[in-house]
Amino acid sequence: MLEALQHSPPLAIGTAAVFGLLIGSFLNVVIHRVPKMLEREWAQQAAELRGEPGADQGRYDLLVPRSHCPSCGHAIRAIENVPLVSWLLQRGRCTACGASIPLRYPVVEGATALLCALAIAHFGWSAAGLAAVVLTGFLIALAFIDFDTQLLPDSMTLPLLWIGLAFNLWEVFAPLQDAVIGAIAGYLSLWTLYWLFKLATGKEGMGYGDFKLFAALGAWFGWTTLPAVILLASVVGAAVGLTMMFVARHGRDVPIPFGPYLAGAGLLALYLRGPLASLYGLG
Quick one: what percent of the chain has pLDDT higher than 70? Predict the structure, then answer.
C-alpha cells in the first residue's frame, strides 16, 4: 500500500484528502473542548488554592463525553458524524431538534482535507509530507482556538515546537542548528517586543502564547524564515484590524488575536520558505 501511494500521486492525494476529512472532524473536537478543559483545570487549581474541595465534574477530555447536540443533548450517532457528508445530508441541522449546526464544522473539515491534499501533492508521500500534515492540523486548531478565546494553549504550542525540532533532526525543513536558533529567536524576538511595548505604553500588546507559537514556527523552518513570517502576519493582522475598526466599528481597545495570522503565515512559509527567506538575503 505504501509503495502504491509513493508511485501514484493521484492515489496519494486522494488518500490524504480522505484522512484530512477525518483529521478535520477531530480538530473540531479539539477546538471546542481544549479551552473548556483548560477552564476546568483552572477552576480546580483555584479551588485548591482556596483550600476548597474541587467539584467533581466528571471526566471531560477529547474522548469523553460522547459528542452531542448542545441544544437538546442528542448523542451524535456514527452515521451523523461522517465528516462533511453528514452536515450536507442533514442540511446543517440536528436530526433530533432541528437546531442549526454551525457552518464552521464543515468548513474546518473541508479546509483540512484540502490542505492535507495540498501537502501530499507538494511534498509527496514522504517524511516532509507527513510533517506538513501534522503542522497543518496544529495550525488550524490553534488559529480557531485563539480566534474564539484569545488563548494559545501550552499543551499544543510546546509539543508543536518539539515535533518541529524532532523532524529537523533529519533536516526535513531546516538544519537542526537553524531550527534551534529559530526556536530561540522566535520566542525572544516577540518577548522583547512585548516588554518594549509594555514599558512604553503600560499595556500588553500580545500574549505569551504568541511567543511560543512563533518559536514553534522557528523550530520548524529555521531562523531564516522568521522575518518574512512576522512581516506577513503583522501586515495581514494590521489590515484586518483597521478594517474591523472602520467597517465593523470594532473598538480600538478591543484586543485582536494574533495567533490566526501567525498560523496563516506559517502555512505560507511551509510552501514558500525558500522565496520568503531570499527576500531578506537569508536563503
Answer: 92
Using DSSP, state whether 276 is helix, strand or coil.
helix
**How far apart (Å, rounded) are the C-alpha atoms in residues 85 and 25?**
11
Cα dihedral 265, 267, 269, 275 sign: negative
**Furthest-apart CA atoms within the chain: distance in Å:** 62
How far is the C-alpha of 124 from the C-alpha of 141, rounded, in Å?
23
Residue count of the chain: 283
The pLDDT value recorded for residue 247 is: 66
More confident residue, 234 or 168: 168
* pLDDT at position 45: 86
CB 54 within 8 A of CB 48: yes
Read off the pLDDT of residues 247-258 as tens digits, 9 standing for 90 and up.
656 556 667 899
CA dist 283 and 281 (Å) reads: 6
For residue 106, give the amino acid letter: P
Q: Answer whether residue 216 shows pLDDT above 90.
A: yes
Cα–Cα dist 164/215, whole Å: 10
**Exposure string (b/e) for 107-128, b if CB count within 10 Å is 16 or more?**
ebbbebbbbbbbbbeebebeeb
Contacts of 157 (CB under 8 A, 6+ apart): 142, 209, 212, 213, 215, 216
Backbone angles phi, psi at 154, to 5 degrees: -60, -30
Quote the mean pLDDT of the chain. 90
Does position 260 have pLDDT exceeding 90, yes or no?
yes
* Whole-number Å distance between alpha carbons of 128 and 126: 5
